[in-house]
Amino acid sequence: MAALIAEHQIDAVIHFAASVVVPDSVRDPLGYYRNNTVNSHELIENAVKGRVRHFIFSSTAAVYGNPERVPVRKTMPRCRRRPMDPRS
Question: Considering the entire predicted model, what is its pTM?
Fold first, then answer.
């Protein structure tokens, strides 16, 4: 990844690569941890080392529950309890 950033002189990264399907995360929590935490950390670390100037991280919309309207806007109210969870 570091070589790609250097070779192509990357100055911006948009991170949309996280796994987001809640039921799958319950079935494979370690896989989700690896992808969403370990791999994201590696991407961020390489972006910093490669002096990437702009990094945009897209987070989950699960904090909004099952929204009444789409697209979900960040001004919409979030779940009062916790983000969506198939076990609840």
Answer: 0.66
